[in-house]
């Protein structure tokens, strides 16, 4: 006992500074600011958080799962398969079923030769995005993306040392002409070969909530094909996380539908929004060479995602529960969306502008330019005093954009919270806005 | 339809070479040779594979899980929590229970201040190893490890650009004097500051099957403390994946037990070997600064491992099933180990040497020096003709070691296969050896 204590005091004298030992990747990886936001919400249980991108709590199909899991586990063969190692790429039968389904849904065209070998199962589509970034990006490489974009992905690209360039969007999503201008500019600067990918959400984007129209899809693909300068292809990473939660208008084909040769697009989807984030499963479909390399990298990460989760989702899809659940989700989120729009109309000051979400569960609200919505700004404190939390717009912009320094927008999520809290949260925010605007005009 | 076909033919003319777009990390990441081995086994169902590190198939507790899962899922609160997002670090209650258990088991000392904040849940301990490598290693950094070592980890370090140095082992595991000599040499070469970690298995090592004796544990820790040159600490990554499967003699305290200040050691454990690989869960306990950075990186990877898997293991631990299952596993693997040793004694030629596994499920067999066991060698083909597969010893050595070019050893796993196949597989290998040795002496 004495010797243990001696050892401890010898230790206490030593200063271990692990920070000085960190790798370049580690130094580039910063805790997402959203963590700080979440901590604020947790500290005060009275705060209504419109910040978290969590899914509707009541919708999570725990009872249906109880039955299905019993079904999977009671049978010796399936049960043991679920509990044993799988392959790094993902369960073959699961991938075959996924590809069959994507073909039926015309996500991939019937005349493409895409099969299960082009599909990689990951721990959420987030892991697919990380693996693609790790496979392709070196320092000084360039990634194009929407402005504003899904903020978590900005941290991924930054950690790989890549430069991100935000392309203008409007109420229909990414503006193809602006993409072309950007590529033309990069060509003039002889930097075109450094452009490794365009990261694009094609359905109910986060944070704008818009679904890219059919015409723009073709334009964007055609632009990327034209700028394949010197044989350097630009990968289109099509993130379709919210495709199954589109509730307004027609749901256009994914851009992947037009990539018959499977050479240009890495298409990703997640089961987090459409079924359950707790299972942590998503997948990617893309060029064989790229998928194969991502499998090798994933082999080093974790040898493959949970086999049990894959067996569960396979069963959920077979049983018909998946399709039934999607209908339930669409009706839940449509109702919440309509409530949100209603409260916006009724309570928000006329100076506030917003887009009508085509699906998903975010509203993007833009305040008068004089209002700075950043976490360091005055308005954020006013909102906190009213006990409501939002995601400041500046976080959703790539660092090359002026909006990343100062934005008057905010992302409001109605994903997780109930209808009452949703109404109350929006009303609190309306009060904060009125206070802020009256201060500005005073 | 015509336009789609036109687009396709335009595509066919283009050559997309994604390989030329790969990142440095991607170029350094090669498909593990074990994949090729596994493919061999799959091609011919008559082959008995002693190569795979899978766990005992019959032991997987699918029936018990059926009941427990119903329990977790039927209850609204637990069921929904399992299906919702968790935190990146891992479920707080789960981490608290893990740390409590580790303290009871004296993995961490009762007077250390280690708590749940020092624990990170990962997708297998493999992910913890990857995150540690990603957090600490840059090109030209040095990792020390056992020779032979767990071969998958060699690929991880290589992909980060690090140089690995293999330290001699004997029948008790890593030889402390050799570690010291290596560090002294690196000091002379002024490369000590590049040594970022020592990766070490402390229980029933893969592939040797040996458990490091208590005395060596203290020596190794003390050596690392002495060589903390110029304030650059060397992280000890203590991989205790097989701790709960030690069946012989006393099971000594982990080295982590003596790291009261929690500054020197990242301790990792996996639920793959002790419960179910299909859940893909493991954890690490280490210095706060390092764990925090690994959490940030994991936030980019996947926002946290499956919450459902965490809820399941929490329930399994609470229910007592975990401890009960460990006893079952120990008796299964003891029985298999004894069968393996028996067949080795009875059938293997006197020229073959092996170690008695203290646990886990590997035997390390060394043939006469004249036999080259590599996948390209003659003996491997002879074994394939006898329809038996093993892991060639050269794969288990760091590239700085001569054994990585030529080895006469092999790793035989009795993890997954049944007792009959185990006996038959070893007998086939004995026949292959006899053939080979008679060829050599002819």
Short description:
Two copies of one chain form a homodimer. By secondary structure, chain A is α/β, with parallel strands linked by helices. Chain A has helices at residues 2-13, 24-28, 33-43, 62-74, 76-83, 92-104, 124-136, 151-159, 176-188, 214-226, 288-301, 307-319, 321-347, 378-385, 419-441; strands at residues 48-49, 119-122, 142-147, 163-170, 173-174, 195-201, 235-239, 265-270, 282-285, 353-354, 362-366, 388-389, 391-392, 409-413.
Helix content of chain A: 40-55%
Arithmetic mean pLDDT of chain A: 92
Strand order of the largest sheet of chain A: 2-9-8-7-6-3-4-5
Q: Low-confidence parts of chain A, pLDDT < 50 over ≥5 residues?
A: 1-13
State the name of the first-level CATH class of the largest domain in chain A: Alpha Beta
Biggest chain pair contact, residues each? Answer: A-B, 107 and 107 residues
Main sheet specs of chain A: 8 strands, mixed
Strand content of chain A: 5-15%
Bulk shape of chain A? globular
Instruction: Give me the CATH fold name of the largest domain in chain A.
Output: Aspartate Aminotransferase, domain 2
Radius of gyration of chain A: 23 Å
The CATH superfamily label of the largest domain in chain A reads Type I PLP-dependent aspartate aminotransferase-like (Major domain)
CATH architecture of the largest domain in chain A: 3-Layer(aba) Sandwich
The domain tally of chain A reads 2
Helix run count of chain A? 15
Number-wise, the strands of chain A total: 14
Q: What is the string of SSEs of chain A from the N terminus onward?
A: HHHEHHHEHEHEEHEHEEEHHHEEHEEEH
Oligomer: homodimer
Structural class of chain A: alpha/beta
Q: What is the end-to-end distance of chain A?
A: 69 Å
